[in-house]
Each structure stands twice: as structure tokens, then as C-alpha cells.
Write a structure and sequence with these properties.
Layout lengths: L1 E4 H11 L4 E4 L6 H8 L6 E3 L5 H14 L3 E5 L3 H15 L4 E6 L19 H6 L4 E3 L7 H13 L6 E5 L1 H5 L1 E4 L14 H12 L4 E5 L6 H14 L3 E3 L14 E2 L3 H4 L6 E5 L17 E6 L13 E4 L2 H11 L8 H17 L1 H13 L5 E3 L4 H9 L8 E2 L10 H11 L5 E6 L9 H8 L3 E7 L4 H10 L14 H8 L2 E4 L3 H14 L3 E6 L7 H5 L3
Parallel strand pairs: 2-3, 2-4, 4-5, 5-7, 6-7, 9-10, 9-12, 10-11, 12-13, 13-14, 15-16, 15-17, 17-18, 18-20, 19-20
Antiparallel strand pairs: 1-8
Helix pairs in contact: 1-2, 1-6, 3-4, 3-15, 9-11, 13-14, 13-19
């Protein structure tokens, strides 16, 4: 026990949890915390972006590629509201993100007196975007609430948490014990549920393995190919499940193939997936029997209609199945034909986009990180970019957060070490985050931004052309000169007018290890929707 401020105690508690970077923007309500960070700069870095929305995006990107919790920090009121989109994205993608949110002085919370940055019901706003939220009433509670927040992120379904902190508590001085991290309960194996899945699989001749975002990390990456080999079964990866299995594995299939398999599969076992279409319906699997494995009971309830339900950690159940199942004949040569058919259809329907996707994939090592944006290349990449390693593909999940990609990729690059990070974006989505090239420059973050410019919100424009008789509204853009913009920010710039030039430019940027913009002028591409919609 030692005499310290609340800000000192919070800083030490974060360090004890293994945190070495906080993505945050200082402000008067947080002065007590940033002063505590000042005294521990040799152990914890404060990385300051140029917009509060980027704090939570960067924390999410950091978590996605490291598997470690990301920590963000903002002032109350407008700071919290700006950070909310990143929290919503982290919530949709089951990311471990802790938000340190300032409040007005504790004695004024809820008073409605118009204190600086006060908004009504800030706590309730944050609670809607988190798994757990707490606000200490005494300085002595700060360390234990930090530890509890980390325990919450590491227990059950991982989702964001938040800690609200009043400036009076951050400046308060007391004799405090920081303590050690709280132990998280190890996931258990539900023997009865595993036995039901084994029975379902033993009765099937055409089983399908389906994986979502709940199947992540190296352990799952090692187990999944072993299960696929035992069953001789295809592994269909959802958009959030990409990277659970190396796309080069002979059992790997893209998300839209689940639709293709609905007429021949007789059993589907889905691990760590919501197993819903974007329209809130159960994915179509024809007459196949269905087993759902999910740690969250909300993700197995209606409108889903499972024959077997197992509430458990997906990776733990994978491990149990690998131990209990025996090798058997399954799909055989038919699986090879399915893979070829999926690949051929992608090449036939979206060849122009795939030329660029192939160029970026060829530039990256197997564990290189690809951050995908909601842009014309991005949509095709949800099924066309071959993900070859865990923690190497980032997508915003069902939140579909346009403009999230660049700041999320910055956070990913901070956590990536020597692994290169490439983000694809359009001239629409990049508008949310142009200011963050200053962040990349300031901290020497070697993010490679491949920016496709068509002077439109390209997907919106194409839909207005094809489905609304060319009644264009709000879909045209006027862009800055991106070469001059790169020069102004002091980052590298290259113009790439075809796929070969993109591959060369990305390779050169990886070698340079500096932040770079690669501009690719394009026209509106063929629609990516047919293959995306077939998933539903």
C-alpha cells in the first residue's frame, strides 16, 4: 500500500494488466490520469490521434492483431459520443476494448447544471455499447474496477467495457493497494453437449463445419484443420471468421458457399457465429441438421432453429471434438470441385476487383495484416482475399462502419510489430480519417493505405444507376489532390494505375517501413453483390 493519486493508481493497474499503450486524447477532466501516465512513461505510452473517434478504432485494431485488450481514453460528453462508433464496432466484433471515459465532477453527475462536457445519461449511453460499465464513487475503488474490467473482457464472450472516471477521484490522494489482475475462469467442456455433436456427426455423411468470429487465435487455427481432416469436411468461414483456417487449406471455403451446400449437406456444426443473415433470418442450410456452439446464449435463440445447442467456448469444444472423433470418409473429391467452382465464380463475376485483391495478397507475407473497408474492393475482399494466418484480417462485422478502416489499421500497425499492415479504402470512407495521416507521421507508424479513387461513393452510385434509374443523389464527391495531401502530411505517396503497379508500390512501401498513400484511380466496378447475397 502506498500514498498515490487516483490517476497514479489507474496507471499502475493498467500496467499490471500488461497494458503498454493507451490510445487517447487528453483533456481537463483527465488531467489527473495523464499526470499519472507522465510518471510511468517508461512503461506505458500515450498515443494521441487527431480525432476522438480514432481512439476506440485504434484500440480495436490493436486488439484484433495482438489478441490483447486495447485501451482508449476520452473526455466526457462529446468525447464519449465521438468514440461511440468505435465502441459499436468493437461490440459487433466481440473485441476486447476498454474505454476510460472522463466524467464531470462526481458530485455533479446527474445534476443537469450544465457542467463542461455534461450530457444527459452518459452512463446509460455507454452501457448500450459495452458488456460492463462501472463508475467508482471512491478513489479506493479504482484499482479493483480496472482489474474487474479486464476480467470481464477475458471471461465469457469478449466485448468492450468502460470505466467512467471523475476528475475529483483522479486527483484524490489516498493510501492505495493496486493489487494483481483478477483470475479469469477457464472455459469448461460441456461433456453432454460435445456428446450430442459427436452423435450428430457420426450419423452424417456430408457434414459441414461453419466458423464465425468466435473462433480466433493460434490455438483454434491449429485445431480447425485437424477437425476438418478427421471429418473430411468443408470449413465455411463467415466474414468475421476469416483467418480461423488458412485459405490455402484444401477444406477452406468462402462464406457464400454455405448457400451452395444447402442441398447436399446433411449436418452443419457452427462454431462462434451468430448464424444469421443481415436481415435477421437463420442462414439457409436446407434440410441439414444444425448444431450451434456459442458462448453467448443470445446467439443461439430464435429465429435460429438448432437441433443441438451447446453454450460454451468454441475453441474448447473444437479441442474436445478433435480428441473424441475418429477419421472417416466424407466429401472426398467433391470438396476439391467445390473449391474450384467457388474460385472460378469469383474470377468470372468480379475479375476487375480481383486483379487488385491478388496484387495486394501477392505483396504481403502470409501473416501480413489486411484491414478491409466498405468499398468496392473491400466487399469483394470479404470472400476473395485469401486470409492465411490468424489475427491478420480485420472487418467491421455487422456494424458496417464506413470510415472505420484507416484509424483501425493504425492501431493494428501499432500492435503488429514487424508484420506489414495494408488498409484498402475508397475516397469516400477515407474522408472520415484524413487527419490521421498526421498521427501516422508523428509516431512513425508504417501503415500502407491503398486508396481507390472514383470520385464517388461507388457502391451507392452503382445502386442508384442500376436500381433507381440513374437518379443520382448524394453519391458524387470532390476530392483533394491526394499527392499534395500526402506531401502536406509528410507521408510517402505513389500513383498506381493498374494491378501490377499496385503490387510494386505495396512491396516498395513494405520495404520502406514508412507511412504511405498509394492512390489507384478507378471507375465503378461490377457489382460484388451476387456472391455476397447468395450467403443469405
Amino acid at each position: 500500500m502506498a500514498k498515490m493519486t487516483g490517476g497514479d493508481a489507474l496507471t499502475q493497474a493498467l500496467i499490471s494488466e500488461g497494458t503498454d499503450t493507451v490510445f487517447g486524447i487528453p483533456g481537463v477532466q483527465l488531467d489527473g490520469l495523464t499526470d499519472g501516465m507522465y510518471r510511468r512513461q517508461d512503461e506505458l505510452s500515450l498515443l494521441v490521434p487527431r480525432h476522438e473517434q480514432s481512439t476506440t478504432y485504434m484500440a480495436d485494431g490493436f486488439h484484433r492483431v495482438t489478441g490483447r485488450p486495447g485501451v482508449a481514453m476520452v473526455v466526457p460528453g462529446p468525447g464519449v459520443l465521438n468514440a461511440a462508433a468505435g465502441m459499436a464496432t468493437a461490440y459487433a466484433c466481440s473485441s476486447q476494448v476498454m474505454l476510460l471515459a472522463g466524467t464531470i465532477p462526481s458530485t455533479l453527475v446527474g445534476s443537469g447544471l450544465g457542467a463542461l462536457h455534461e450530457i444527459p445519461k452518459q452512463t446509460e449511453t455507454i452501457e448500450g455499447l459495452t458488456k460492463w460499465t462501472a463508475r467508482p464513487s471512491r478513489v479506493e475503488e479504482i484499482p479493483e474496477l480496472v482489474h474487474e474490467g479486464f476480467r470481464q473482457m477475458r471471461t465469457g464472450r469478449p466485448r468492450p467495457v468502460a470505466l467512467e472516471l471523475g476528475p475529483d477521484l483522479l486527483h484524490a490522494v489516498a493510501d492505495l493497494e493496486v493489487g494483481e489482475p483478477f483470475a479469469a475462469a477457464a472455459p469448461t467442456v460441456p461433456d453432454d453437449g460435445v456428446a450430442e455433436i459427436v452423435e450428430l456427426l457420426n450419423a452424417s455423411s456430408r457434414p459441414v463445419i461453419h466458423v464465425g468470429g468466435g473462433v480466433r487465435g493460434q490455438r483454434a487455427f491449429d485445431l480447425l484443420p485437424r477437425l476438418a481432416e478427421l471429418l473430411d469436411a468443408p470449413v465455411v468461414m463467415s466474414e468475421n471468421g476469416r483467418g480461423a483456417l488458412d485459405a490455402r487449406d484444401p477444406h477452406a471455403l468462402p462464406a457464400f458457399s454455405l448457400w451452395e451446400l444447402r442441398g447436399t449437406a446433411d449436418a452443419v456444426v457452427s462454431f462462434g457465429s451468430r448464424f444469421l443473415t443481415p436481415f435477421g433470418q437463420q442462414a439457409n442450410i436446407g434440410d441439414a441438421r444444425l448444431a450451434l456452439v456459442n458462448i453467448d446464449p443470445d446467439d443461439v435463440r430464435a429465429p435460429r432453429r438448432p437441433d443441438v445447442t451447446v453454450i460454451a467456448d468454441a475453441t474448447t469444444v473444437l479441442e474436445a471434438l478433435v480428441a473424441r472423433l475418429e477419421a472417416r470418409a466424407g466429401w472426398g473429391e467433391e470438396l476439391r470441385r467445390l473449391r474450384e467452382d467457388c474460385e472460378n465464380r469469383i474470377r468470372a463475376q468480379v475479375a476487375p476487383q480481383m486483379a487488385f485483391v491478388d496484387a495486394i495478397r501477392a505483396s504481403l507475407p502470409a501473416d501480413g495484416i489486411f484491414v478491409n473497408e466498405l468499398t468496392q474492393i473491400g466487399y469483394v475482399s470479404t470472400y476473395g482475399f485469401p486470409v492465411q494466418a490468424p489475427h491478420s484480417y480485420v472487418w467491421p462485422g455487422y456494424q458496417g462502419t464506413l470510415g472505420y478502416a484507416m484509424p483501425t489499421a493504425l492501431g493494428a500497425a501499432v500492435g503488429a510489430g514487424e508484420r506489414p499492415v495494408v488498409v484498402v479504402t475508397g475516397d469516400g470512407g477515407i474522408g472520415w480519417s484524413l487527419q490521421e495521416f498526421a498521427t501516422a507521421k508523428r509516431y512513425g507508424i508504417p501503415l500502407i493505405t491503398v486508396l481507390f479513387e472514383d470520385n464517388r461513393f461507388g457502391n451507392v452510385w452503382r445502386i442508384q444507376r442500376d436500381s433507381y434509374g440513374g437518379r443520382f443523389i448524394g453519391s458524387d464527391l470532390v476530392n483533394p489532390d491526394f499527392a499534395l495531401l500526402a506531401q502536406a502530411f509528410g507521408v510517402d505517396f505513389a500513383l498506381a494505375e493498374d494491378a501490377d503497379a499496385v503490387q510494386k508500390a505495396v512491396g516498395a512501401a513494405i520495404a520502406a517501413r514508412r507511412p504511405a498513400i498509394i492512390k489507384v484511380p478507378v471507375d465503378v466496378f461490377p457489382s460484388p453483390w451476387p456472391l455476397i447475397h447468395e450467403k443469405h
